[in-house]
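Recall that a protein's primary structure is simply its ordered list of amino acids. Everything else, from secondary elements to tertiary packing, is in principle encoded there. The following example makes that idea concrete.
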Amino acid sequence: MNLKVVYMGTPEFSVKPLEEIDKICDVVMVVTQPDKLVGRKQEIKFSPVKEYALEHGIEVFQPVKIREDYQKIMDLKPDLIITCAYGQIIPKELLELPKYKCINIHASLLPKYRGGAPIHHSIINGDEYTGVTIMYMDEKMDSGDILYQEKIKIEDSDNVGTMFKKLSVLGSKMIKEFLPRFISGDFESIKQDESLVTYAYNISKEDELISFNDTSRNIFNKIRGLNPFPVGYTVLDSKRVKLFSSRIGNGKTGSIGEIINIYPDGIGVKTSDGEIVITELQFEGKKRTSVKDYLNGIQNKNELLGKNFTE
C-alpha cells in the first residue's frame, strides 16, 4: 500500500500497531514525546516508539509542544496521520492536512473513557469488558466518529500491565485489518452518542492512595488497576507501603484498616464489607516482594495482628 503515513505515539502500547502499519504503508515520520531524564543518575530515556523508529530507519520528530511546532509534518504532506497514545492534542492545521484525514487508535470502547488513562479506569471501575476503538480525530478529545471497534474481556487475573499488552495486540490486529478497507472506502463511520460519554483522566497522586474504607471488591480492583504503574499505596507504622496484588478474603471482624489475619501468602486487612488479602507489596526503602517472602523474614508474625493501615 503506497501510502505516506506519519505515526504519532509514545509508550510501549503504541509499538505493535506501528509495526503493522510499517509493514503495509510508507511510514515517513514518527512523532513522539521528548526524551526524559530518569533515575538518580538522570539518564536520557527514549520512548519505545522512538526506539522502534531508530531501529528501522524512520525519521523521528519530538516537538515539546505540537500545537506550536508542526511545520516538519506539514512539509511532508502525508496521506494519513495515525495517532496512538501520543500524549498531546493535535492542532487543527494537522487534522486538516492529510488526504485521508487523521485517525486515532484508542484503548477503550468509546464513547466510554475518553482521555489519557482508559485502561486504568476500566479496571478500577470493575468493568467486565474494555476494547479498542479506531476513530476519526477532531479538535476535541477522543470525540471523533467511530470507524472500527472491538471488545475484550477483563479477567480478575488482569492488571494494567497485562491489559496494556492485550489491547496493544488487539489494536495492531485491528489497524492491520482496517487500513485496506479504510483506504478503499469500505467502511461506515458512526457518531459517538454524547449522552454516553465518560472520561478517564490521567491518574493523579491523590488517586494512588488505597483506602480500606471501601468494599473488598473495589479495593481489589483499584490495586490491580494501578499495577504496575503508578502503583497504589497505603501507610503502616508511618511508612508508605506500595500494594501490587491482592485477593478477596473471608474475614469479617475488626476495625477498618486493621490487620485481622495472617496467611501463608498474605496479610488480611479489614475493609468496609469484609477482608482484602495483600499478597505483594513494597515497604518504603525496601524492594518489592511477595508477602510470603516478607512473612518468612519475620520471627513473630502475630505481632502484625491488630496493626492498622492509615491514609
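Residues 220 and 246 are 6 Å apart (CA to CA). The chain has a mean pLDDT of 96.
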